[in-house]
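Title: Prediction job returns without error message
Component: structure pipeline
Severity: low
Priority: P3
Assignee: unassigned

Description:
Job completed but the reporter wants confirmation the result is attached to the right record. Sequence as submitted:
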Amino acid sequence: MHHFPRFGHGASGCVFRRHAFVRPLVVCAVEAEAACARGLPLAQVVVSGVGRTNAAIATTRAILEDGPFDAVLSMGVAGALPGCDPPLPLGAIVVASESVYHEEGLHAPDGFQDMTELGFPLGSFQGNRVPADPALIDSFKSLGRCGPIATVASCSGTDDSALEVQARSGAIAEAMEGAAVLHTAQHFGLPGIEVRVISNTTGARPKQIWNLEQAFDPLRKSMPAIAECLSGR
């Protein structure tokens, strides 16, 4: 049985020390994202498949079978949500202060209620918001825009759906795995964070702008900077 390192008391409930994160686990949804992340020294990179269930399964399996790790990163591309000031351009790096489950809860006549409000908390965190590790936020926030990233089951293909995700979560971007990866990391007492590059706009599908290569290239080129963030220097 693996014994996982503890890191002082953070918002995730685990113990963190201000030191280098030597062996990170990086969870990516698809191979194209993972190929970018393999430039990160000493990292174990796994391809989970798309969506939160696949992400949780892959993260759990890697921790149990390939650990120990001292940090967990959810990494890949994301869609920019409306309401950012200034707007996020394609190719921008975003760092999650928290990863937010968007759908879990109740649509009530007087508004949406999250799982904590319903009396069925998802974890030790408040509501649907899985906090990133404070030490990792401090190290990574210089890479780009820092703010909540929504974890959605259905991507926003209408203006109304994009506005709803942003209004409910306060997120700057949406993706499909981050909250599940951080939630799993927290369960095993490991610090986690979500780092993504903007590949597309959200909202009305015919008007969306996509450029995956414009996202994969900066993701690939960010690996030396991410390695520096993990080094503790």
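Comment from assignee: result matches the submitted record. Residues 1-17 have pLDDT under 50 and may be disordered.
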